[in-house]
Amino acid sequence: MRTERNLTRLDRVFARLDREPERPAHIDVPKMSRHRVALFAATLAFYGAIVWAVVITSWLVRLDWQVMFFRPYQQWSEIQWFVDYYVVLGQRGPTAVMIAAWLGWRSWRQHTLRPLLALGVSLLLLNVTVGAAKLSMGRLGPHYATTIGSNEMWLGGDIFPSGHTANAVVTWGILAYLASTPAARRWLSALSAVTSLGVGLSTVYLGTHWLSDVLLGWAAGLLILLALPWFEPLIARAEAVIFDLRDRWRSRRTGTAPAPTAPVEVPVLLKPVDTAQDVSPTARSPRAPVYLAPGPHTARSERTPVTPVGSRRPPQTDRVTRGTTSTARP
């Protein structure tokens, strides 16, 4: 009795990894729809509102000071060890390496550079926009505040907006942006939202950021993700240029580059040879390959059986044919 082993989930995963990589026939590229434009405009308005509320030292600044004096890291000190590790999910170096490794493997499997190029563009936008905002507003953090109740703006700091929060939104949100199915996009969007929310609150818990810093960091990261479809044509052109350079480098390395054209020579006219009259004794007539049978193809039942004439064995003088009398040997 033959029994077949049921494949486990791990077996199916390895079977999928062993398949030949291939480029998908259709890659779902997000487009800048009206809904996305509306979300971008709303997020930009929220960004401006947070900046204005901090500049005029409104109720938001008072809330920042109240949370700072509450000192969450002293109120719930038993979870500080966990928060110290969890906040690493917002650091640019470790998260960029992890996400780049995953997207690099995905680029190799799909024969496309779009995942890595999208990550590179998003990180470049993150460094430019968030870095420019930090340096231009120069806000000091809670641990370096000088005047109670002030907004601590333009004092040479680099804390507003929160870089940890914006980085968590972009690096984990890019996975949802590059998802290939709507279901995966929904799940990854929820996962990135929870992760970035936790990273932002972790910085408030540790006292390294004001609450308004975290709010502005969320808005800054979301603006980058919402604006990525505008950069898709640039990503496509960059991918085409990189693949073209790769093909040229391969052709030069293997020596398959087109050779320089030789000078054109004047063709020589040859006289036609009459094969019926002038045939050299050493010339051979063209014949069909060995694997092609000569003549028309016939079925086995229509072929004439061929039997050999005579015996295939060599003649033997001492062998006597049946029915004859053998002579006595001397």
Summarize this, please?
The chain has helices spanning 9-17, 34-55, 59-70, 72-75, 80-86, 92-110, 114-137, 163-177, 182-206, 211-227, 232-254.
Q: Low-confidence parts lasting 5 or more residues at pLDDT below 50?
A: 258-270, 275-283, 288-294, 326-330
The largest sheet, given as strand count, sense and whether it forms a barrel, is:
none
Which bin fits the share of residues in helices? Answer: 40-55%
Helix and strand run: HHHHHHHHHHH
Q: Tell me the β content.
A: under 5%
So what's the oligomer here?
Answer: single chain
* Continuous helix count: 11
Structural class: mainly alpha
Calculate the mean pLDDT score and round it: 80
Measured on Cα atoms, how large is the radius of gyration? 40 Å
Tell me the distance between the termini: 69 Å
Shape: globular
Number of DSSP strand runs: 0
Describe this structure in words.
This protein has about 325 residues and is mostly helical. It has helices spanning about 10-15, 35-55, 60-70, 70-75, 80-85, 90-110, 115-135, 165-175, 180-205, 210-225, 230-255.
